[in-house]
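Hi R.,

Here's the chain you asked about this morning:
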Amino acid sequence: MSAGLQRKIIMKKVTVPEVLAMKGDGRKIAVLTAYDFTMARILDMAGVPVILVGDSAGMVSGGYETTLPVTMEEMLYHTRAVSRGVERALVIGDMPFASYQVSTEHARGNAARFVKEGYAAAIKLEGGKRSFDAIKAIVDMDIPVMGHIGLTPQSVHRFGGYRVQGRPEERASEILEDARAVQEAGAFAMVLEGIPASLAAEITAAVRIPTIGIGAGPHCDGQVLVVNDMLGLTTGMKRPRFVKEYSDLKRTITRAVKKYIKEVEEKVFPDEDHSY
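And here is the predicted structure, written out as tokens:
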């Protein structure tokens, strides 16, 4: 096999049908967020099959306290940047607050912008039964939708903070109904956030579409983390219990910056090797 053909096979684009098939095949789905071209390129080359351009960009890149202030224009900017850095991964754009709740027509128009202007292959939006009409309307446009239930960050004020959902049993039943509604509306997958592992296991067994957990235990069909959290880059925020740090890039970057400052101040850099 030629090197060119081998690379083409390796870089085969991940599609929505493939993500759906992964559940049936028992293959776990690794998802990470990305917000810019450089990180997206690194994640794609590392083999991440799905990249979510989360509205968490508002907190990670914009410094907002919640995701609520994030605008469509901001999300389109981040989604375009990520899409340009990706050859293989499925890119999903995250619809920000008030971009799909106002009306189904508003939702359809904004979803279309993610595809036309952000080059996304799919979109994600929050809510179960209450978002049924929006999900169905977008799916009817042939735009794949990923749902998001449980702890939905855009509902932070209603929840009174970022609290685990699905307790007591009555609330767990409501979230299970949300999962069924998301599936019935036509979504191809759903995020389960901040719910007990036992409830996530029940939902995963009850639905045909993949479940992607974040703070939902090990029984989901896949997992998603904010890339800055898992790389140890997050500053000024308490790390959630469900986050595992796979690196400490904050310390690595800090050491490099301190060394650079020292060399500039001591006239070590630039030297002859770094001059024309």
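One quick note: The radius of gyration is 20 Å.

Cheers,
M.
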